[in-house]
Structure formats: structure tokens, C-alpha cells
């Protein structure tokens, strides 16, 4: 059971390990883009390539097929970023009486819908993947195994998710093998160490220039590839796709408020932030326009040191 690209390596790894995948459950095709044409979830496309049956219920709650998995010969259900809450009747319907879930964090840290973004926003130096038994409380079930991964200072949410998807697929195959051999031991999580990162929408990606350059730089990386960090500039909604912490440029005027331009250095536009800091905007994009360097944006709008961007 899975939906986005993050779940595809797990499906392929389980299939390659010669497990009999009875069928794949994913969310329905959804309209995307300007055409609003329905687009199949990545897991559906992967399942079709593997010749597997795909089932796409609009809502799983009360779904008759998913409530009788044991009678259909299904021993275990494996969930990876499925995107719907699973009620008890479904969680307990496989032959083993439970389901397992692959989560993109070192549980109990960063439970919730956006664990990878949560790790980047928090400034964590490491992340990882965890396999747990699914229970009523979200991502709170007992752990079967975890695997750690160092976070590169340049990682975006997209690049880190790709690494974790591969790492998680390998761990998941190992865990299913343990279950198959009757060697699985589930250990309760320490709830006192739990943190939570819910789904991030566009408003949460807004840049507050009063924050430190470190906080804003982490926000920028955590919002790539979507929804992209942004702020309301004098020229419209400006998205920031790449940024880095900077030093005060030599030509900067003496007193600068957060959100004021300091100068351009190379292809970067340097902006004052809170805590007397500076952030270099390397790649920006006005909504609906093409990407460009921060310096090119500044040249095109004749931005001078001391000018307010917002």
C-alpha cells in the first residue's frame, strides 16, 4: 500500500525478493497541471510495469475487500506513504493480524506526514528510516528496525527523500524476511522523545526575513521540490529555490533591516535577515516565470543596496 515516488523502491524491492505481491493498493488518479488531466500515482505506474494488480479505492474506511485480507490469503500488508488513515478492521485483517509501515525518520522523532521536511527544518544532522507496526496513533506503533543516514548540508527534501527511499527499501526487505522466519521483535517507542511534523502547505513555506539566515536556509532546502519557499516581493510572489548563508558584503549600507538588499556578489543577491545575518539568494523565480540567478533578478529590477524587497 503506497502512493508517491518514495514508495516505488520498496515495491520493486519486495517484488525482486520474490515475495508474492497479491495486489497493490494506491490512491486514485488525481487531476494535475494546467490541463487538470488525471495522472496516475507513481506506485500505480510501477505496479503496472511489474504486472501487478492495482486497486484504487477513494476511501479505505469500510472497504469490504481490505477488511477480509486473511480470507483472500494475504499474510501481511506493507504500507509506505499510502496517504490514508487505516481503521482497525483493515489494520488487523491480514493473516498475521497486523500491518507494518516504513516511515522516513528515526522514530519517535518526526512522526507525521512530512518527516523529511521536519528533519531539515530542525537542523538535524542525521535522518533515517523506521519500520513499525501500525496502530491507531499515527506513527506511534512499536518498532521492528531503524537505519540511520547522515544528512548532507546541501540536501533538499527531494534529494534526502530519494536517499531514504532506497535505504528504506533495503530495510523493509530485511524486516519482511525476519517476520517470515518468525524472528520479528517489536519494541515500544519512547513517547517522551516524540516530535511531529504535519503536512506542509504553501502558507508554511513563506519566508520571514526576521528569522536567522540558518532558519531561512533550512526552510528553502526543506521546501524543494515543493511547495518552494517564497515571499511577497514588490514584483509579485518570488520563490527561492536555492540559498546559502552569506557574510556581509563590502558595499552594504551601514544599517539594514531584514528583507532589504545588501548587494550582489557573483550571481547571488545578498539579503539582510534577522540576527544581523545575511542570506544569499542563488536561484529565484517569479511565479509563472523562468528560474534565474539572484543577481540577474536584481539587475533586471535595478535593485540597489538598501532597497526593500518586499
Concise synopsis of the structure shown:
This protein has 310 residues and is α+β, with helices and mostly antiparallel strands. Helices cover 23% and strands 23% of the residues. It folds into 2 domains: 5-193, Formyl transferase, N-terminal domain (Rossmann fold, 3-Layer(aba) Sandwich); 202-300, Formyl transferase, C-terminal domain (Methionyl-tRNA Fmet Formyltransferase, Chain A, domain 2), CATH 3.10.25.10.
Could you characterize what this model shows?
The protein has 310 residues and is of the alpha+beta class. It has 2 domains: 5-193, Formyl transferase, N-terminal domain (Rossmann fold), CATH 3.40.50; 202-300, Roll (Methionyl-tRNA Fmet Formyltransferase, Chain A, domain 2). It contains 7 helices and 14 strands. It has helices spanning 8-16, 42-49, 88-91, 115-121, 157-181, 213-222, 294-300, and strands spanning 24-25, 30-32, 37-39, 54-55, 77-80, 99-103, 126-133, 143-150, 229-233, 236-246, 261-265, 268-272, 278-286, 292-293. Strands 9, 10, 11, 12, 13 and 14 form a 6-stranded antiparallel sheet that branches. The protein has a 4-stranded mixed sheet with strand order 5-6-7-8. It is elongated and about 75 Å long. The two termini are 44 Å apart. The mean pLDDT is 97.
Amino acid at each position: 500500500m503506497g502512493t508517491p515516488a518514495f514508495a516505488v523502491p520498496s515495491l520493486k524491492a519486495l517484488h525482486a525478493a520474490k515475495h508474492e505481491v497479491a495486489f497493490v493498493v494506491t490512491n486514485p488518479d488525481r487531476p494535475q497541471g494546467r490541463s487538470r488531466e488525471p495522472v496516475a500515482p507513481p506506485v500505480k505506474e510501477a505496479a503496472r510495469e511489474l504486472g501487478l494488480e492495482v486497486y484504487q479505492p477513494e476511501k479505505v474506511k469500510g472497504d469490504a475487500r481490505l477488511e477480509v485480507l486473511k480470507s483472500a490469503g494475504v499474510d501481511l500488508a506493507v504500507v509506505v506513504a499510502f496517504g490514508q488513515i487505516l481503521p482497525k478492521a483493515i489494520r488487523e485483517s491480514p493473516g498475521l493480524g497486523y500491518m507494518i509501515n516504513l516511515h522516513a525518520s528515526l522514530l519517535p522523532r518526526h512522526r507525521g506526514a512530512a518527516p523529511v521536511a521536519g528533519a531539515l527544518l530542525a537542523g538535524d544532522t542525521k535522518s533515517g528510516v523506521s519500520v513499525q507496526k501500525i496502530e491507531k496513533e499515527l506513527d506511534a506503533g512499536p518498532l521492528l528496525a531503524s537505519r540511520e543516514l547522515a544528512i548532507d548540508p546541501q540536501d533538499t527534501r527531494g534529494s534526502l527523500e530519494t536517499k531514504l527511499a532506497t535505504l528504506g527499501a533495503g530495510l523493509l526487505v530485511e524486516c519482511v524476511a525476519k517476520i517470515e522466519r518468525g524472528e520479528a521483535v517489536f519494541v515500544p517507542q519512547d513517547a517522551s522523545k516524540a516530535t511531529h511534523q504535519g503536512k506542509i502547505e504553501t502558507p508554511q513555506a513563506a519566508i520571514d526575513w526576521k528569522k536567522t539566515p540558518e532558519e531561512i536556509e533550512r526552510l528553502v532546502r526543506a521546501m524543494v521540490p515543493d511547495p518552494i519557499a517564497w515571499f511577497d516581493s514588490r514584483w509579485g510572489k518570488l520563490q527561492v529555490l536555492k540559498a546559502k548563508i552569506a557574510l556581509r558584503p563590502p558595499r552594504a549600507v551601514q544599517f539594514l533591516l531584514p528583507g532589504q538588499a545588501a548587494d550582489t556578489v557573483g550571481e547571488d543577491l545578498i539579503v539582510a535577515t534577522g540576527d544581523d545575518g545575511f542570506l544569499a539568494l542563488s536561484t529565484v523565480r517569479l511565479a509563472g516565470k523562468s528560474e534565474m540567478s539572484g543577481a540577474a533578478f536584481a539587475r533586471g529590477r535595478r535593485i540597489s543596496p538598501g532597497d526593500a524587497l518586499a
